[in-house]
Each structure stands twice: as C-alpha cells, then as structure tokens.
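go over this record:
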Amino acid sequence: MKQKHNYGQDVGLFPSELSRRQVLRLGLLGATGVMLGGGLGLPGFAAEPATLPATRPAKGTAKSVIQIWLWGGPSHLDIWDPKPDAGYDYCGPLDKPIDTNVDGIRICQLLPLLAQQADKYAIIRSMTHGSDGHETAAYILQTGRFPGDNIVYPAVGAVVNLYKGYDAGYKGLIPPYIVLTEPQGRFSEAGFLGPKYKPFATGGDPAANQFAVEGIVAEGVSFDRQKARRDFMNDLDSLGHAVGSDPRLAAARGAQDKAYDLILGDDGRVFDLATETDEMRLKYGRTRFGQSCLLARRLVERGFPYITINYGGWDTHSRNFQTMRQRLPDMDKALSTLLVDLSERGLLDSTIILWAGEFGRTPKIDWQPPWDGGRGHWGRAFSAMVAGGGFKGGHVVGETDAKGESVKNRPVYPCDLIASMYELLGIDPDGLLPHPQGKIVHVTPSPDEGVKMGGRLREIM
C-alpha cells in the first residue's frame, strides 16, 4: 500500500496553530470589546531573539536557499542516475538517457530542458544514510542527525532562520522561513530552537486564479474590500477612542496594525503572481509546482533566506513509470526555468538550490500486482542536486554500482551536504546552537557524536 504523506506536526509548540487571520479576528478590540493581555507569540510578532553563541565566522556568498523537497522519495535511477545497461528489470521503459550540455553527464530522457542547463547544477549520485522509513529518513535529511539521543534537532530552514532571519536584522513582516505550500510536519520544524523559528506555510495554490495565502490573502476578498473592512472596524472602535492611552490597548492595537500592514502593505504583495507577465508564468508552467518555483524566485528577490517548495507525490510503490511520465515534464519545465531566471537576474550566485527527497527507490522494479512496475524505499543509495550559491555546476559527485543499489565511491551523508550549505551561507558548521537547557549542541554533528561523515563537498565548492 502507498504510505500517506501527512507525517504529523509537533505537538505543544504552538497551541491551536493560530493563523494571522485568526489573530485579526481575535484582535478586533473596538468591535468586540475583547481585551488581549500580553504579547502575541506568532513568528514575526515580537518574540525575544535567541542568544547566539560566539562562533568562528564562516566565509560565504550565498544569501538564500530554495529547497525543493520531494516528499515520498524520488527514484534516482529514473532521474539523475540512469542505468541503461542494468536491464529492463531496473530501468523499465526509461532506458534511453540523454546527453546534457556537459560532456559525460547523462540524465533521464524525460528531462530535455534540464539537460541543457547541466552547466548550472551538480548531481550528487552517492547520497546515503541507510534508512528506509519515511519519518526517520526525512528527519535525517532535514537535520543531518539520526534520531534517538533525546534531542529534537532543528531542520536546516530553522537554523538558517536563526542565523539569517530576525536575529540577523531581518525586518520583514512575513517570517523569513517559508514553505510553499503545505506544511512538511515536524521534519521542517524548529526542534529545540522553539516556535519562533518554525516555517510559515502559505497553504493555497499559486496556480489558482487567486493565490489564497493563509492569514494574508483571503480567497474572494479583494484588496479594496479588505481596506474597507479595516476602516469600518476603526469607525466602530468606541472603546479604543475612549481609553486610547491604555498601554495594553496600545500593544494589542500595534499587533493588529502589523497584521493589517501584512495584508494591505507591500510585504504581502510578494504573493501576487498577477504582477508577473503571462509569458513568464507560462515559462514556469501553470501548475502548482511551476508557480511555486516562480514565487520562490520572487521571495529570493525580496531577501527571504529560506524557501521550501514541498513537492509531494513521489512515493511510487505502484505504477512508478506512470508517475514519472506525469511529474518529470512538470519538474523539467519549472526547474530549468528557475535556473535560467535566477541566472539572468544575477541571483544564482547568491542562491542555493537544493533538490532532494528523503531517500531513493528500489533499483529493481516490482512488476507483480498490485505494484505493476513500482519501486519501494531505498536509503542505501540515492541522488540529490545542488546549484548556485557557490556550488559549481557541470559536475557529478560520487557514483553508484552498475544497478544503482549501493554507493561505489565517495559516499555523501546528509550532514556533509548540510555542512557544505552552511559554509556557503556564512554559517559556521562547527559552531554552536543555543540550547534552552544549556547543552552543547553543534550546528552540524561533531566527530565525537559518532555520525557517519564523508566530508564536505569540496569538489564542487
């Protein structure tokens, strides 16, 4: 049976998961006469900054990350690591890989546009961690650690949020760590860093006529109508007019004003894809993934440090090749356009693109019913792709054996990839994270933690 992709949320970090729109409803003080006591613990609404330990500064030119997260685990043999000589039981119908614009690099035949951009990205064909469970593998890929030591570590996005977000001078009203569009559950969470560093999941569909962003853009409600609602609420605010100098009212009104600034101000307009030309939108593809890639580019332009595109549907236990024929052309169009668009705008050198899922798929195909050409989970060997931000394009790191079953040379563990990204971002991989109980926790695993490492990706840095 196919496994579900909703792996759950952290419990207790953010009671009731209040949206910004819910905060607005709760904060209509004059209209409802409700008094809110204290501050709001929402990301972007004034939580106290963490105290960052002193660390050795790392040199890095990258400013942002676009993480393309392929929930379910994409097949490495059917995308970046084709094995045409392994036979039909391993390749199936995708047995004719194509040349790229870099001599010696071949990829899946369903990726002709990406084949012409191979000089911009590097393929890591020797990713490994050995876990075949979605939950464990996703945690390892997102944190660089294995579970089981009684510490819930923060995901890469949360760490980048810590070092590149509010505590580093980020001033935007929208939280600096964004997930497009559905939450990834606890595998993109903040761990012991706390709820301030959790991502803001937009919800909605950027390919829809109106991209309804949770707490910012309400479906069917125009900008003018939102403004009229605010004006009407202010007219009704008799309590506010009567005791306007009360500091508790002033604090609550300030939070309310921030929320409305988010909805009506320039910050929220980053999600308005209608400001893009039809030609540009068509280049990316009028699909959820295509428009998410376009939106990721817009967010990078605005200075957001970490954007995850949660791209599900890759758990191909059954009918793997039907899924590949449906999804790979969509990915090919959107991702190749993103590479070109960032490059032409001078943003690729400062933006890391990370393409990865939690593991690969079984190299040998299961042709029996009910699988009908499916592939199972495979954590022993799989692929990732990186581009930009200091990573050198036109390279392949590592190699798997003739059937793609195991790493033949240069194993790359998730902590190696994560540490390499941190270094390019100017975050010291050997530095410390602020643990609430004062525990010594390094940004990436130290050698004495017993985590397998192959070393940072010096060959493409």
The CA atoms of residues 38 and 359 lie 44 Å apart.
